[in-house]
Design a protein that fits this description.
The complex is a heterodimer of chains A (about 550) and B (about 325). Chain A is mainly alpha-helical. Chain A has one domain (about 30-235, about 245-540): Up-down Bundle (Cytochrome C Oxidase, Chain A), CATH 1.20.210.10. Chain A contains 17 helices and no strands. The longest helix of chain A is centred in the N-terminal third of the chain and has 37 residues, at about 70-105. Chain B is built from seven helices and twelve strands. In chain B, strand 1 and strand 2 form a beta hairpin. Chain B starts with 13 loop residues before the first helix and ends in a 7-residue tail after the last helix. In chain B, strands 3-2-1-5-8 form a five-stranded mixed sheet, covered by helices on one side. Chain B has a five-stranded mixed sheet with strand order 4-10-9-6-7. The chains are: A mainly alpha (about 550), B alpha+beta (about 325). At the A-B interface, helix 4, helix 6, helix 9, helix 10 and helix 11 of A face helix 1, helix 2, strand 7 and strand 9 of B. The structure holds protoporphyrin IX containing FE (HEM) and copper (II) ion (2 copies). The site of one copper (II) ion has 5 residues of chain A, from helix 9.
């Protein structure tokens, strides 16, 4: 990494960034902070690849007959987009970068419990990524990210096996990371860092790790079954061979619904940190939020059937899944209300992290409530597999989780790099992302209710206006996502030194120099106070 | 009409109108629950902005009572909608006994429909108003999903299985049929026209549409052509169960199970006879998988049903 910024400030000279400059020192590092950076670079690459696929899709949908791509090309574009975004960007995004960087810092540890395992999980991720790149180069897959059988096992002619291997492999990276986090949080908390003093970021990563460890193996098994049917005609899912295609859907969603919480829980943890730091005030209802994370992780395993209301499952099963899907929304609702209440009587700085957090709250709320609409049986029968669902999950995964990712990037960038970026540009990009996002995805709710199915390359002309609006939004959104790249990288060399705590925030990570030294803390910190111990909260606790 | 100003597809049935009602009702609840969040986020951010004078004393950091109430109250409100939505859904799952049954076969990438009188159509479905219509559907290859936006209904169409859908359309017109489940290259053009007609017009359409006899008659021809009658008839020398009156009956199987002989059972008995062997008979019936198309099996089933008086209990 010779492109590294010159390390000028005294903090930088003794930081983890200064602990070796060779490529080798990065590729063989076991420092959780450097591994976080390795992940940051690799997921950014995949975000870019999947983003190009999205751009192709939106360009193609400018006209009803889809002039840019063939039907086959279009199918390959959305399949690749989904697979890469889900498994190679969003699932690892916050946990593997910010989780890796921050969990040890936040609990007062020198590193994660198994530093070498941590590096191994990055290599596994890269190996899975290489398989994906291979699939991309040799022509792609056309099954959709959901791999429904018997289309994927008996009919699709893309590189299904190779991509199944890619996803299978990357799953082990998730499992190892989850395991590492669980052990780290149990075993490496500094003296005095009781469970009740953990930042909510830790709680949400703890819940996420549980899901990673428990759900990902199911995906692995499912992919193995899928590959064996495709290769050896085993007759597990294909009715022509005596199998049951719904079995595949049950297995797939038994993993993939919990997986949506893998994507959103870490984002929620980020938002708790961002909101409280901006308000300089303890998060409202710490225990409700902490327990809500665990409740989501638990109940999230019981709702998979809401993806199958019209698939042919028993109507009584559907009724139960519908009910449980309403239950799983309760903890999310608590969080949204509690974040809002956190701002009440705060001492609020409206910096980029708060703007991203506000964008998250707004968009996540819309995504969550439309999720409830989809959980209502009569409504879902109409809008299932239409653009309404596409809009729903993008409001949560992109409007929510990706905004949180950018919020985290803007909040902890000074800690990670030691430099401050332009706050003005930060505010502009938060605004552009919010606006571009809504322009892209709001029209899709209407399209869905009007009856435009998803995964349509050719669509009836009456849907064109809304599609053009959506594509216009997408180009704005793309520009808005690229913008931070410039000012953040610019800040690496030219930003003002950030100092240990530029936001005046509570939390152990802000007690270290920016960037932190290789071993995080000179002496192991002793913790004698709760998280978010801001003067405002204290004053009210005293009086 | 431009898509921008239209917010919902036309409503061709009472059910469609009810789905729109529950949707709008829930939308209203959504606004009620989120407006405070959106307003307060901005209001607090402005009011308690750093440097602004404001009363910041006694800032609360917890409130179990209020937290419980904003967990429980929205939940209870949502439960009301759960009951409503489930009720509508259940209503849509139980077809009335007198429904007109139309067979549907999906295949890459077309929809085939067969009316009881034997009239066939591809990528178009004619139905009468004011009468329940039941679609019995299956797929010849991958999973498809029959989607009728004007009725706010869809149902996945699976290979190896019958699924069904029923409706009572009440507004004549021409609406869309689409495929909602991704099924390969031409998924997005796998659609057609859904034509709702007054009963007289439907009768005229049936009369002019060509037919080789009713579905049951066509089934009977297949029954003879494929040698079913060689075993399943009184004159037969081989021992095979009589099929008259079978449909809808509780049928004991060799392995001790008792199953209701519904459409699915008849289909599987023809294609996979070894799976469910009728009690007291030797498993000598050959499989017809690969010899009969799904549409032919549906015709055979129609014939077998015409021999039996009862609809199976739903
Ligand atoms: C607030 C709680 C939520 C509820 C009640 C909910 C409900 C639903 C329902 C019922 C569906 C199925 C719709 C259909 O296919 O017809 C669905 C789809 C989906 N949801 Fe959610 N959801 C919630 C939160 C989330 C979260 C947090 C995420 C992601 C981070 C998410 C991502 C998705 C995705 C990706 C799909 C579509 C999967 C596909 O078919 O490709 N949802 N949601
Ligand atoms: Cu789900
Ligand atoms: Cu299709």
């Amino acid at each position: 990494m010779t492109a590294e910024p010159a390390l000028q400030t005294p903090e930088e000279k003794v930081s983890y960034l200064a602990a070796g400059h060779s490529v080798r020192s990065w590729l063989l590092t076991t420092d959780h902070k450097r591994i976080a950076i390795l992940y940051l670079i690799s997921i950014t690459g995949f975000f870019f690849i999947a983003g190009i696929a999205a751009a192709l899709i939106r360009l193609d949908l400018l006209t009803p007959q889809g002039d840019l791509l063939t039907n086959e090309g279009y199918d390959r574009a959305f399949t690749l987009h989904g697979i890469v975004m889900v498994w190679f960007f969003l699932i690892p995004s916050i946990p593997n970068t910010f989780g890796n960087f921050l969990i040890p810092l936040m609990i007062g540890a020198k590193d994660v419990a198994f530093p070498r395992l941590n590096l191994l999980s990055w290599y596994i991720y890269v190996l899975g990524g290489l398989f994906t790149v291979y699939v991309l180069i040799v022509g792609g897959v056309d099954t959709g990210w959901t791999f429904y059988t018997p289309l994927s096992t008996m009919f699709a002619n893309g590189h299904v096996i190779a991509v199944a291997i890619a996803v299978f492999i990357v799953g082990f990276s998730s499992i190892l990371t989850g395991l590492n986090f669980i052990v780290t949080i149990h075993k490496l908390r500094a003296p005095g860092m009781t469970w009740g003093r953990l930042p909510l970021f830790i709680w949400s990563h703890y819940a996420t790790s549980l899901i990673l460890v428990l759900a990902t193996p199911v995906l692995a098994v499912t992919l193995v079954l899928l590959a064996s049917e495709r290769l050896f005609h085993l007759g597990i899912f294909d009715p022509a061979l005596g199998g049951d295609p719904l079995l595949f859907q049950h297995l797939f969603w038994f993993y993939s619904h919990p997986a949506v919480y893998i994507m959103i829980l870490p984002a929620m943890g980020v938002i708790s940190e961002l909101v409280s730091a901006a308000a300089h005030k303890r998060v409202f209802g710490y225990w409700f939020i902490a327990c809500a994370s665990l409740a989501i992780a638990a109940v999230g395993f019981l709702v998979w059937g809401h993806h199958m209301f019209v698939a042919g499952q028993s109507i009584y099963a559907s009724a139960i899944f519908s009910f449980l899907s309403l239950v799983v929304a309760v903890p999310s609702a608590i969080k949204v209300y509690n974040w809002t209440a956190t701002l009440y009587k705060g001492d609020i700085r409206i910096d980029p992290p708060l703007l991203f957090a506000m964008a998250f709250i707004g968009l996540f709320t819309i995504g969550g409530l439309t999720g409830l609409m989809l959980a209502l049986l009569a409504i879902d029968v109409h809008v299932h597999d239409t653009y309404f669902v596409v809009a729903h999950f993008h409001y949560i995964m992109v409007g929510g989780a990706v905004s949180a990712f950018f919020g985290a990037l803007h909040f902890w960038w000074p800690k990670i790099t030691g430099r401050m970026y332009s706050l003005i540009w930060g505010r502009i990009s938060a605004g552009l992302i919010f606006f571009g996002f809504n322009l892209t995805f709001f029209p899709q709710f209407i399209l869905g209710y009007l009856g435009m199915p998803r995964r349509y390359h050719v669509y009836p002309p009456q849907f064109q206006t809304l599609n053009v609006l959506s594509s216009a939004g997408a180009s704005l959104l793309a520009a808005a996502y690229v913008l931070p790249f410039f000012y953040l990288v610019y800040a690496l060399r030219n930003g003002a030194p950030a100092g240990p705590n530029p936001w005046n925030a509570a939390g152990l990570e802000w007690t270290t120099p920016s960037p932190p030294p290789k071993h995080n803390f000179e002496t192991t910190p002793e913790v004698d106070r709760p998280a978010y111990d801001y003067p405002l909260a204290k004053r009210s606790a005293d009086g | 009409m431009s898509g921008l100003f239209q917010l919902a597809p036309p409503e061709a049935s009472a059910h469609a109108a009810q789905v729109d009602h529950i949707f709008l009702g829930f939308l209203a609840l959504t606004v009620l629950l989120t407006a405070p969040v959106f307003v307060l986020l901005i209001y607090y951010a402005a009011k308690y902005r750093q440097g602004r004078p404001a009363d910041r004393t006694h800032a609360p950091s917890r409130g179990p009572l209020i937290e419980t109430s904003w967990a429980v109250i929205p939940f209870l409100l949502a439960i009301g909608f759960f009951v409503w939505g489930t009720f509508l859904f259940f209503q849509g799952s139980r077809a009335p006994l007198d429904a007109l049954t139309i067979n549907v076969v999906g295949k890459q990438w077309m929809w085939k429909f067969e009316h009881p009188g034997g009239q066939r159509e591809i990528d178009a479905l004619h139905v009468p108003t004011g009468r329940p219509v039941r679609l019995v559907m299956t797929s010849q290859d991958v999973i498809h999903s029959l989607y009728l936006p004007a009725l706010r209904l869809k149902q996945d169409v699976l290979p190896g299985r019958y699924t069904s859908l029923w409706f009572n359309a009440d507004r004549p017109g021409v609406y869309a049929i689409r495929c909602a489940e991704f099924c390969g290259f031409d998924h997005s053009v796998m659609g057609g026209r859904f034509i709702v007609m007054r009963p007289e017009a439907y009768a005229r359409w049936l009369a002019q549409a060509g037919t080789d006899g009713s579905l049951a008659d066509q089934g009977f021809k297949l029954f003879r052509a494929h040698g079913c009658s060689g075993c399943h008839s009184d004159q037969s020398t081989r021992r095979a169960p009589a099929l008259a009156g079978l449909y809808g009956r509780a049928t004991p199987l060799e392995d001790g199970r008792i199953v209701t002989a519904d459409d699915q059972y008849l289909r599987d008995s023809i294609l996979y006879p070894a799976r469910d062997v009728a009690a007291g008979y030797a498993p000598i019936m050959p499989t017809f998988a690969g010899q009969l198309s799904e549409a032919e099996v549906l015709r055979l089933v129609a014939y077998l049903k015409s021999l039996g008086p009862k609809e199976p209990a739903q």
